[in-house]
Amino acid sequence: DRQEVLDVVWLGQGEVAQTSPLPGSPYYNERLAKQYTEYDVAKANEYLDKVLPEKGSDGMRLRPDGSPFVLIYAYSAANPVFGDALELISQQWAKVGIRMTPTPMDRTLIATRQDAGELEGVAWERGGGAGQEVVLDPRWWFPSNADSYYWAPAWTAYFLDVDPETAQVKPEKPSEPALRQMELYGQLQAEADPKEQVRIMNEILDIAAEEFWTMGIAWPSNGYGVKKTSFHNVPASMPGSWIYPTPAPTNPEQYYISN
To answer: What is the separation of C-alpha 28 from the centre of its chain, rounded to a whole number of angstroms?
Structure first.
């Protein structure tokens, strides 16, 4: 129930959505953004019954071998708001027989387990992106960089062409849709025409919508800052992106304070 999570944890700030570029972006994909966001317990049970039909005496689903099905979801202990969200989600998932355990971890430990392909699930912040961030950091839409190890470690190792002899996660040839995305991304990087770049990236996102690689809760609301009236040369707004990287391109060395 994404709306409940949004209302309780983020005080209603933001908008229910999947992991997708933001509206107004040339990369916005309505299907990718809004599919599967409805809250429907009956439909969830219908689909889960097809893959995990057996349940224990406690109503929780069992693996095919009869052992309990449990997901360990990691989150950074330095960002406890994700723990709040996961605790609420674990209660919601329990209603359909899925046991999920939110687990705080040091970020270094998350990175270590990420690189080893040992994470069952991880909660992370993703703003969605609106500008070239969508192209520069497409980690959630196909296995494209080290952070894609969160959800597709072996496919990511394949894309990054890591040495199987030394890699913690052995490269594995991806499915055809993911291979197509990788091929398209190579074309995008070699393409000089901005319009053609947008077209290619949108094809990558169409495949992401079809395959539904990663799951989101909501887009965040815009951030804000407080500026004293005697503090000058600060722009009224700036992109909230670590790739940008905020606030460096706004030339903080030219900020100044008047008497």
So the answer is: 15
CA–centroid distance for 126 within its chain: 5
Q: Which residues contact 153 (CB under 8 A, 6 or more apart)?
A: 114, 116, 117, 169
Distance CA 84, CA 81 (A): 5
Q: Report the relative pairing of strands 121-122 and 218-219 from DSSP bridges.
A: unpaired
Residues near 107 by Cβ (< 8 Å), separated by ≥ 6? 76, 77, 78
Which of these, 107, 131, 157, lies nearest to 239 by C-alpha position? Answer: 131
Mean pLDDT by 10 residues, the chain (259 residues): 96 94 93 96 96 96 96 94 96 97 95 89 79 90 92 94 90 97 98 97 98 94 89 90 86 94
**8 Å CB contact between 182 and 191:** no
pTM of the shown model: 0.90
Residue 233: phi and psi, rounded to 5, are 70, 20
Element (H, E) at 156: helix 153-159
